[in-house]
Write a structure and sequence with these properties.
Largest sheet of chain A: 2 strands, antiparallel
CATH topology of the largest domain in chain B: Rieske Iron-sulfur Protein
Number of helices of chain A: 17
CATH superfamily of the largest domain in chain B: Rieske [2Fe-2S] iron-sulphur domain
Helix content of chain A: 55-70%
CATH superfamily of the largest domain in chain A: Cytochrome Bc1 Complex, Chain C
Number of domains of chain B: 2
Shape of chain A: globular
Strand order of the largest sheet of chain A: 1-2
Oligomer: heterodimer
Number of strands of chain A: 2
CATH architecture of the largest domain in chain B: 3-layer Sandwich
Distance between the termini of chain B: 60 Å
Number of strands of chain B: 10
Helix content of chain B: 10-25%
Number of helices of chain B: 3
Distance between the termini of chain A: 77 Å
Strand content of chain B: 25-35%
Radius of gyration of chain A: 24 Å
Largest interface: A-B, 17 and 15 residues
Largest sheet of chain B: 6 strands, antiparallel
Shape of chain B: elongated
CATH class of the largest domain in chain B: Mainly Beta
Radius of gyration of chain B: 34 Å
Structural class of chain B: alpha+beta
Strand order of the largest sheet of chain B: 1-10-9-4-3-2
Order of helices and strands of chain A: HHEHHHHHHHHHEHHHHHH
Order of helices and strands of chain B: HHHEEEEEEEEEE
């Protein structure tokens, strides 16, 4: 390391005088103590979506260079990216796989937070913001899938917006808002595109900002140890010396870097082994025999197959409310029954139902339950 | 960081190695640091450059000049001065001509290309012309258009000549160089 010469120092001074940044504050923030349990990789699942988001934004910008959101050209522009553009197939496959991993990563993060009870006081609001982030990610998935405009993606959009129409009171407006007309067409594609590359990213960044602000402000939930008082939590020196904490930078940043590299390798392997393909162009006249949404909507799709429409939608609504307000419901459960195992049991049951329905849809309903289950329910 | 800037402030013109020379013998760390830097630079710089090059190539749309070679026949199948018609090549009818084997005066044998190919679709109204070997002309029966050996209009109503298709001979095989067609 050579000493900076005077011109370099002049450059540093130039910016120091003009950019009123207090580097010491940044250094302090970067070295925030983090509890030792964060050294285990599954606690780094919160950072994983952030890495995937960066990959998705980068690859997404690349894709918009060639994508044309027009019913006549969308399909061909995607085909062009996949087949003609230099490494276009790779970028598109990376985008697709990163999107899938994003849903998985957010869900795993949610389960981790749930089963470690990290959503409890004072982190209830951050749980709710996290749920908002999950729904935004699903919104990304739905709008993005429709943009390909091949048969499957066209009919997924058709069914998805058709479902929205079934929502009581606001359904009809909601469907027209999404479609921009009566059927999936020019306006739909424009709207889906704008939501996919403009609205959802903005919403996501805002929620992400709030999410990070809250968890940095409240500190990471110190599992298996007492919660520090605000005064204690401000004394970083003592915390680091206690041996129960380690600095975010460089230690944890290094973990995230390793995860980022592992994700890039995994995405590349997935993209090579199962590259994103494109089916036949969207045909509004003929519905394909088997239409299926992306796997993360299998659960809802299956609910709709098993129950009458109104009941299925009602169930979904109840589940969403239960999930979003879980921290408060959890406290209520504790207060009433005072059984600590009850909350995880609830979570396991929910997770079990989700997995069961997803797998059932994945096998077109041939496993797990047979005819008797829907019949039993509709008999009720 | 702070200590470093303080040392700089006290000695206005420090040379590299000044600080190490004054204190204890140099530790092993600098060598390790150097090797680590070489390793990092040696992987990060090529990776960044390679990534940037690929990114730039992605941003530029693929060239319209992209071509594919379509195998037509063996060169020996068309005798010097003879022709051969290929039906429905790219939904068209294509005529492959072979000149006499010797290079004409004034042209070196190295650059001499004895094969030529033309689309037989007449540039006037789209009828198929045919090759008249005896007079070495293309003739379109619809409106009596005549084209010479190079596909240029000699007589008749066509506005331009026949579409010429680039031909290449490699290892005794004749290839048609066609523009890349979007699937």
């Amino acid at each position: 390391m050579s000493e900076p010469d005077s011109s370099q120092r002049a450059l540093v001074r130039f910016f120091k005088e003009r950019v009123p940044l207090q580097l010491e504050v940044f250094e302090q923030l970067a070295k925030e103590p983090i509890p030792n349990h964060m050294k285990r990789w599954w606690y780094a699942l919160g950072g994983t979506p952030l890495i995937l988001f960066a990959i998705l934004v980068t690859s997404g910008i690349g894709l918009t260079f060639y994508y044309i959101p027009d019913p006549d050209q969308a399909y061909h522009s995607v085909k062009y990216i996949t087949e003609r553009v230099y490494f276009g197939w790779y970028l598109r496959s990376m985008h697709k796989w990163a999107a899938n991993l994003m849903v998985i990563a957010v869900m795993l993060h949610l389960f981790r937070v749930f089963f470690t009870s990290a959503y409890r006081k004072p982190r209830e609001l951050n749980w709710i913001i996290g749920c908002g982030l999950l729904f935004t990610v699903l919104g990304f998935g739905f709008t993005g899938y429709a943009l390909v405009f091949d048969q499957l993606s066209y009919w997924a959009a058709q069914v998805g917006t058709g479902l929205a129409a079934k929502t009581p009171v606001v359904g009809d407006f909601f469907q027209r808002f999404m479609l921009g007309g009566e059927v999936v067409g020019k306006n739909t594609l424009s709207r889906f595109f704008v939501f996919h590359i403009g609205v959802w990213p903005t919403v996501l960044l805002a929620l992400l900002g709030a999410h990070i602000f809250l968890f940095r402000g409240l500190g990471i939930a110190d599992i298996g140890a007492k919660q520090l008082s605000p005064a204690e939590a401000r004394d970083h020196e003592t915390m680091l010396k206690s041996g129960r904490y380690f600095p975010f930078f460089p230690n944890h940043a290094m973990t995230e870097l390793v995860i980022a590299l592992a994700i890039l390798i995994l995405l590349t392997e997935l993209s090579i082994l199962w590259p994103a393909t494109i089916g036949v162009p969207a045909d509004p006249i003929s519905t394909p025999a088997h239409i299926q949404p992306e796997w993360y909507f299998f659960f809802q799709f299956q609910l709709l197959k098993m129950f009458p429409e109104k009941l299925a939608l009602g169930l979904q609504l109840v589940m969403v409310v239960f999930m979003v307000f879980w921290p408060f419901i959890d406290r209520l459960i504790l207060k009433i029954w005072n059984k600590p195992w009850l909350s995880p049991a609830f979570g396991l049951a929910g997770l079990g139902v989700f997995l069961a329905l997803t797998i059932r849809e994945a096998f077109h309903g041939y496993v797990l339950f047979h005819d008797w289950f829907p019949r039993l329910v509709s008999g009720l | 960081m702070n200590d470093e800037s303080k040392t700089q402030a006290s000695s206005p013109n420090p040379s590299p190695g000044d600080t190490a020379a004054g204190s204890s013998p140099p530790p092993a760390a600098p060598r390790r640091d150097f090797l680590a830097s070489v390793l990092v630079a040696g992987t990060a710089v090529p990776a960044a450059l390679g990534g940037a090059a690929m990114g730039l190539r992605y941003v530029l749309p693929p060239s319209k000049k992209a071509q594919a070679d379509l195998l037509m026949c063996r060169a020996e199948e068309v005798a010097p001065g003879e022709s051969r018609i290929f039906e429905n090549v790219l939904g068209n009818r294509i005529c492959l001509l072979r000149d006499s084997a010797v290079a004409p005066p004034g042209e070196s044998t190295a650059t001499y290309r004895p094969f030529k190919a033309f689309s037989l679709r007449c540039s006037h109204l789209g009828c198929f012309a045919h090759w008249e070997g005896g007079v070495r002309k293309f003739v379109c029966p619809c409106h009596n258009a005549v084209f010479n050996e190079d596909g240029e209009v000699v007589a008749g109503p066509p506005p331009v000549g026949l579409t010429r298709i680039a031909v290449e001979v490699r290892d005794g095989l004749v290839y048609m160089r066609i523009p890349y067609v979007r699937a």
